[in-house]
Amino acid sequence: MPDSGSNPIGPTNGASWIPPMKAVPASEAPTSEGWAVELKWDGMRIEAWVDGDRHRLWSSNGRDVTTSYPELAALGPAVGTRAVFDGEVVVFDEDRPSFSRLQQRIHIDRPNEALLARHPIMYLVFDLLMVDGTPMLDLDYRTRRRILDQLLPPGPNWTCPPYMVDDAPRLIELARSRQLEGVVMKRLDSVYQPGIRSSSWIKLKIRRRQEFVVGGWLEGQRSLEGRIGSLLVGYWDGQELVVAGRVGSGLSDLERQRLSTMLTEQAEPPFARLPPLDRKVHWVKADTVVEVEFGEWTVDGTLRHPTYYGVRTDRDPGDVTREPLI
C-alpha cells in the first residue's frame, strides 16, 4: 500500500474534511413522490479522498482510518481522477453484511494478510462529493448519482449499489426478507448538506438494533467479581441522558478487558434519572458508543433481551437518540 502519510491528500493539505450528511430516523415511509430508496448497510461510514495512487479515508467522526482498509489503495488508480466519495465499508457473510465480522476489522489499524483474507471489506459508494477539485455538494442527488455511476468502475473491493425511485414498500420487504438493517430514503432534489441531519434524508430501521452511550458498568459475580459484568447504557433525549437498560450478553472476556481500558470512571452518574440497581456501579464518562441488538422496548422504556455487538468508534455520542422502528 502507498504511504499516504508521506504524500497526503484531503484535510491534511489544506482542504477541509467534509462531515457526512445524516438521515433523520422515521417510523414510516413518506407518501409523496420524488424519493430515492436505498438499502441501509450494516457497516462503517467512510469518506474516501483519492488522487491517483494517493488516498485518505475518514470515518464519520473525522478519524483518519486510511491504514485500516488497505484494499482501497487501488480505488484512486481505478477512478483515474481526483474525487471524494461517501459510502460504507461492510464485510459480507455470504450475501448479507455482517457487523460481527466487520468488528474484526474496525479496530485494527494495520491488518495483516491473514485478517485481510478472512474478512475482506467491500466499500459501497452511494454519493459523490467532489470531482477534480470541483464540489458536487450543490447538485441534486439524482445528478450526483448519475455522475458517480459514470465515474466509478466496479472493483474487487468497491461498488456503487443501485437505488430505486418511489418504491419503498418493495425495498423494505426485500430488506425484511434478507434480515437487513432497513432502508434509507433521499429526496431526488436534495443537495448534500455536510454535517446536517436533514429531513431530506430519512432512515427506516427494521432490525431492533442501534447505538447506545455507555454511562456505567456493573460488577459481575463469581469469576467476574471486580470486573465488568454488564454495561449500563442510554440515549440522549434533549439535554438528558436516559437509561435504556443494562447489557451483559455478548460480552467476551476480550471485550471486557478492552472496555475497561476505554471507559473513564467518574464520581457522578451521567444519567438524568436512575433505575433501582442491585449491585455496585462504576460511573463513567459518557463518551463511548456501543452497538446493541434487542428483542423490544418494554412499556417502561427499557431494553428486553439486549445483546452487545461491539464498540462504535465512528459514532459521536451526542448523536445517539432512541430510534423508531417500522
Question: How would you describe what is shown here?
Answer:
It contains six helices and 21 strands. The chain has 326 residues and is of the alpha+beta class. It folds into two domains: 195 residues, 2-Layer Sandwich (D-amino Acid Aminotransferase, Chain A, domain 1); 111 residues, OB fold (Dihydrolipoamide Acetyltransferase, E2P) (Beta Barrel). Strands 3, 4, 5, 8, 9 and 10 form a six-stranded mixed sheet that branches. The N and C termini lie far apart (43 Å). The N terminus is likely disordered.
Short description:
This protein has 326 residues and is α+β, with helices and mostly antiparallel strands. The protein has six helices and 21 strands.
> Mean pLDDT score, rounded?
91
Compute the separation of the termini in Å.
43 Å
Helix % is: 10-25%
Cα gyration radius (Å): 20 Å
Under the CATH scheme, which class of the largest domain? Answer: Alpha Beta
The biggest sheet amounts to: 6 strands, mixed
What's the CATH topology name of the largest domain?
D-amino Acid Aminotransferase, Chain A, domain 1
Specify the CATH homologous superfamily of the largest domain.
DNA ligase/mRNA capping enzyme
Poorly predicted segments: 1-8
CATH architecture level-2 label of the largest domain: 2-Layer Sandwich
Number of domains: 2
Q: What is the succession of H and E elements?
A: EEEEHEEEHHEEHEEHEEEEEHEEEEE
Instruction: Choose one word for the global shape.
Output: globular
Total beta-strand segments = 21
Helix/strand class: alpha+beta
Strand content: 25-35%
Tally of helical runs: 6
